[in-house]
Specification:
seven-stranded mixed beta sheet, 12 helices, 20 strands
């Protein structure tokens, strides 16, 4: 019923609403409130998403892409599987072989291809899932009731064709997956425990004592993910100058190149999808730290890469046969035969929500773009474009409104990613006005001029506008409205709510 009610506003989102309403484990849900659209002959009641704060620093929730990926992971083709029978016989990595558990790569693959039975082995760092007393053996062969763990993959490719699964649960996969589950306030995987050997992913949670790749910036053979995890360690210790060196190294290794057609950066030397996610999270940490601004360094270029990486991650998200967003495969090229796996899924969820509490897209639920604004799916996917030659069709200039969510009371900032496009411009006129409503009254409003929207050093570059607001109403319904006044061409990207 909820999905049907909302589909009259945004077709195709009923499944997402039902998911938020019943399966996140945090009592997220949908309620109905009276709405001022009644006078316009539109539905007088509409649902409101109740959102909760992430349990992880630096990572929030991407509403229109992160939650569908989470839902897919828990579905019949997903990588979050029930632990009914867990076995440990052979080791996948030769360096962790023992007499009782010898190295046998083929035997691991064979044993893990017979679901619902699940296998495990020591991960790349020698840590074993479900080894709660750290004696080198799993302690429980059957998980408790309703125990789930993330497996390597379920054999699903970009066309939802299912091949041979690798029903194998790694400690490291489940560790990084737990970070994502906490960010999205969802069920955590079973089998994790404190280990005397730290997982390389502890740096993503702020650990400042363990550097998994201390020589990442000295060794040209290091992979982007190794440089990124080293950068997290540096960030956790406040070594921002070295983090900037890591960012430079990542850009060089990625072959970053500005695309004059799409007007964003491409990364042609990145072949493993999750490396894009790692890069985005590192770049966001550097920007959020304020180091660049404090030291008179150029913030804008780093922000352009953040926007570009965000767009790349969204572009590469797969759609299922129903048309709904699902997850991501390991490779970046279409038709490469790569599969959806745990690491790509959870790192993308984290990257899309990095740096804010809740992130939305103006072209996707729960935002509603107004008629008259256009999209260029081949060159500017996920971007809402305002062009002066279309202004007469738009009426009052309302670009988009949403997200109609309920959030905890407190002090926040609404953040809008905006880009001025070359063309006719009237620089002395107000270009954009933003309003924030709490369901009862306007709590913040700001008018932006041409100078507010441009970067002095980079033409046609993205800029983030921040509008602070204080929320005191408990039963609030947050709505952001953006009005364009038509004096220059604009592109509108992600919209987020941050502290």
């Amino acid at each position: 019923m909820t999905g049907g009610l909302f589909s009259c506003w945004f077709p195709g989102v009923g499944a997402l609403l039902d998911y938020l309403n019943g399966t996140t484990g945090i009592q997220s849900g949908v309620v109905c409130v009276e709405d001022d659209r009644t006078a316009k002959g539109e539905p007088s009641r509409k649902p409101v998403l109740i959102l909760h704060l992430s349990k992880q620093s630096h990572y929030g929730q991407h509403i229109s892409r992160g939650f569908p990926a989470l839902e897919f992971s828990k579905g019949p083709l997903g990588v979050f599987r029930p632990v009914k029978q867990l076995t440990y016989e052979y080791n996948y990595y030769k360096q962790w072989a023992t007499i009782d558990h010898p190295f046998n790569f083929g035997a691991v693959l064979e044993a893990a291809s017979h679901p619902p039975d699940m296998t495990t082995a020591r991960d790349a760092e020698g840590i074993l899932l479900a080894d709660f007393n750290n004696d080198g053996e799993i302690d429980v062969c059957h998980g408790p009731e309703n125990a789930f763990a993330f497996i390597e993959h379920w054999g699903v490719n970009e066309h939802e064709h299912q091949g041979t699964p690798f029903c194998h649960a790694w400690y490291d996969d489940n560790y990084v997956a737990r970070i994502a589950m906490r960010a999205y306030c969802s069920s955590e995987p079973w089998g994790l425990h404190d280990s005397p050997v730290k997982s390389r992913f502890v740096v993503m949670e702020g650990d400042a004592t363990h550097d998994p790749y201390p020589h990442a910036l000295e060794d040209p053979a290091q992979y982007p993910d190794q440089i990124s995890l080293h950068a997290f360690y540096l960030a956790n210790n406040g070594h921002w100058g070295k983090v900037q060196l890591a960012v430079d190294a990542l850009l060089k290794k990625s072959g970053a190149k500005y695309n004059l057609v799409t007007k964003r950066f491409d990364y042609p030397d990145i072949h493993d999808f999750y490396h894009l996610c790692d890069m985005k999270m590192v770049f966001q940490r550097l920007l959020d730290a304020g180091y660049l601004k404090r030291n008179g360094k150029e913030e804008s270029l780093v922000f352009q890469h953040i926007v570009a990486l965000h767009g790349q991650i969204m572009t590469l998200q797969l759609k299922g046969k129903s048309g709904a967003f699902t997850s991501w495969k390991t490779g970046v090229k279409k038709g490469d035969g790569s599969l959806i796996n745990t690491e790509t899924t959870v790192l993308a969820m984290l990257a899309l929500g990095a740096g804010s509490l809740w992130t939305f897209e103006p072209t996707e639920y729960p935002f509603a773009p107004s008629p008259g604004f256009i999209q260029f799916p081949d060159t500017l996917p996920h971007v809402l474009c305002a062009r002066m030659y279309e202004f007469e069709k738009i009426g009052n200039g309302l670009i988009a409104q949403g997200p109609h969510v309920r959030i905890p009371t407190g002090s926040y900032s609404a953040c809008f990613n905006i880009r001025v496009v070359k063309g006719a411009q009237q620089k002395n006129m107000p270009i954009l006005t933003a309003h924030i409503f709490d369901g009862i009254s306007t709590i913040a409003v700001c008018e932006y001029s041409f100078d507010d929207l441009i970067n002095s050093r980079l033409d046609e570059s993205w800029k983030q506008l921040r509008l602070p607001f204080k929320l005191d109403v408990v039963e609030n319904v947050i709505e952001l409205r953006l009005y364009w006044h038509g004096y220059c061409d604009l592109d509108f990207g992600s919209i987020s709510i941050s502290l």
